[in-house]
Amino acid sequence: MATDFKYIPIIDVSPLLAKCDDPKMGEDPGVCRVVKQLDQACREAGFFYVKGHGIPESLIKEVKQITRTFFDLPYEEKLKIKLTPAAGYRGYQRIGENITDGKPDMQEAIDVTTASFHLHISITLFFLSVNVQLSRNIMRGMALALCGSPYEFEDERAGDPFWILRIVGYPGVSIANVHNEEENDIGCGAHTDYGLISMINQDDDITALEARNQSGEWIPVPPIPGLFICNISDMLEIFSNGLYRSTLHRVINDSPKYRVSLVYFYETNYDTAVEPLDICKRRSGGSAKIKMATDFKSIPIIDISLLLSKCDDPKMGEDPDVCRVVKQLDQACRKAGFFYVKGHGIPESLINEVKHITHEFFDLTYEEKLKIKMTPAAGYRGYQRIGENVTKGIPDIHEAIDCYKEIKQEMYGSLGKPMEGCNQWPLNPPKFKSLMEEYISLCTGMLNLIASFKFLLLLDLSRNIMRGIALALCGSPYEFEGERAGDPFWVVRIIGYPGVSIANGQAQPENDIGCGAHTDYGLLTLVNQDDDITALQVRNLSGEWISAPPIPGAFVCNIGDMLKLFSNGLYESTLHRVINNSPKYRVCVAYFYETNFDAAVEPLDICVQRTGGTAKFGRAVYGQHLVSKVTTNFVTP
Question: What one-character DSSP code corresponds to residue 82?
Fold first, then answer.
């Protein structure tokens, strides 16, 4: 997440623009100075101010003025260009319709793309100025910094760039907080942008934009009249192989004034395959660090029984059979981020019994299920109705029970306060609690005995898989124990996905999305899914969704964001989703094995050495990450 920057640098790009059409621009001393400044800003902050851009300040002001004039219109007038799927997701959005991390943003906006550009002439001039004279030339400067050639991001990569323009209005705090909702000054929640670069033209008299540095501080990005703010985005992070980072940022408008901004997103060609540039790979250790797994076509199957048989032997890494399993784990984590687990030692009868009792619970009436309704007061534990869980702003078509390792009062101070509480277990079916607790203990590998458990010798499944992964990454099986995951937190989601005939209906063809595309946020996940329905899909490098069909008796295992961070990007947490287009109701029980709740997660030294010597990620405290996800991942009716 960039570095521990405290301010946003200002770069005068006029020497670059003066030579931008000269093939020998890289030899000019003035250009070289700008290129060095761009490179430093992209490495250290991911944000910079753009001065000397050549766009008249009068035009910049006129664009903001006409934007304000539009947002001053009555809703009825603005809704004449309402954004809809039928309009290609172009047009006007009302306040609260844009969602970031599950929370409605306090903004209204017009979304414009290449194919819908029919706005006022001043907006047209603004677009042309930014596109032709500014964004492409800044990218030429960045290309010089990264590659030595100014044209690396043209032709098949961005010779015909797609673009997006968001014309945004943020109500003042007195308007947005009409119901005294504490968080309602969040104009746009924390996020990174997804293209190459973004150019921001914001009101001159309100400081609302903030960028997050490596220490987690939110650094204000105050407006400077006549200057644009530029930030790099996810696609440039991939092209640069992590040399440049797309930095988290947000908008907090706690001013009483209405604020407007225009954000121009400069993208690659629409059909571009984005991957690390060869020269950036060589400059960052020789391998691709930023990737979405590989172009895998199937999910590998790994029998871990030989690993489990040696898991308590300090010399397990010297055993040839263990080494074979470790090699398979390493390959699966690098190529797919997903694998099936066989030979895990958990009785198939218990696996099936867990799914059966889950079906029984979800067959109950809503009134019965709502007796354990999830609320913030319950520590975000309990039952969620269909549509209450939100992924990327879209309600998921599933119902669920969420359970967490129980946190006693004041155990972690303010860090753990939102998660304090006991799990809510239903009284019906009668065996539900005891069966789930037994199952969780086997997945976790907890070695304490609880009277209701049938098994006295508990299997160390998740911890032992992590020992195998630790051997692959570090050479020591105990790297993820002690202060990292010696007292692992865990999360269990017991989920039911309605069949397509219930969730869909003719009018809503998209409602088979049981869970939208996402990555998991812990170390690893074990998924126990119904044997007769294929719904889980994993996305490969080419953007294809690869099915992960159930294999009776086997778990699906995938790695999460915290393991990606520990590995410094050697392992990738892979996008996945659930599409239940079967007429049958589907259940699964997903077990998330995490670090210690208060663990400080950062790249391991050995992984930094293996990836070129530079940490690609900053430090994150697991509990903060979890609380942020949980508190924004669902909505209540």
Answer: B
